[in-house]
Amino acid sequence: MSKHEEMYKLVTEYQSSGLSSKAFSKERGISPSTFSYWIRKKKEEDHPGGFVEVDTGLKSSASAMEFIYPNGVKLQMSSPDLALIARLVKLY
Description:
Organism: Psychroflexus torquis (strain ATCC 700755 / CIP 106069 / ACAM 623)
Protein name: Transposase, IS66 family
Radius of gyration: 21 Å
Helix content: 40-55%
Number of helices: 4
């Protein structure tokens, strides 16, 4: 069994144990920070982030979009491009 498989198996056991991650990792002799890393890694693999296309059923001729980042930077697009939008969101 690979390290990856072994740790994912432990994470699955932890999730059904009812213990805190700190208590479970201590019981198994694993560093709490290392175990937290594997919990996070499994969660990201089980539930990958991303965009989902939503069809609102609305039709509009206006296709301009504006993004305003928390730091005040504004980006304006004349036509929506989902791949570009995804890259712009990840930049922040």
